[in-house]
Design the sequence.
């Protein structure tokens, strides 16, 4: 039993030393790297799946966002969530699909989330309708 502990410790320490060594390979990256920004990943993978799985919910969330933006001018996903909470069991990232297509919305800035219990006070984007008509 003691030998196994010592062996595990030695292997663990050896691994740590190996991992701490700098890479001695001199190579250059010559291939183009595909855009893997959060926005691109969301738009190409998550959003299509949500539109396929929850089309009616996404439609109602977008309608709610549009109505709020027409009334207030500038809104966040917090505002939409307060007016139309996401049903239990639905991936909360569906809120990112509310402001698609981007041709309808313009990002106007950001502010700290009011939903500190869920968003831990992170910053959320503020949005306005791109072609908002004056009231």
Sequence:
């Amino acid at each position: 039993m003691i030998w196994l502990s010592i062996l595990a410790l030695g292997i663990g320490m050896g691994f740590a030393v190996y991992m701490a060594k700098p890479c001695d390979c001199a190579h250059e990256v010559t291939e183009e790297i595909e855009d893997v920004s959060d926005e691109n990943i969301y738009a190409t993978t998550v959003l299509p799946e949500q539109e396929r799985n929850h089309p009616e919910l996404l439609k109602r969330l977008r309608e709610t966002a549009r109505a709020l933006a027409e009334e207030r001018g500038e809104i966040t996903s917090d505002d939409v969530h307060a007016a139309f909470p996401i049903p239990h069991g639905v991936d909360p990232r569906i809120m990112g699909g509310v402001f698609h297509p981007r041709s309808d919305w313009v990002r106007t800035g950001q502010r700290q989330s009011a939903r500190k219990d869920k968003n831990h006070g992170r910053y959320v984007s503020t949005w306005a309708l791109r072609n908002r008509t004056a009231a």
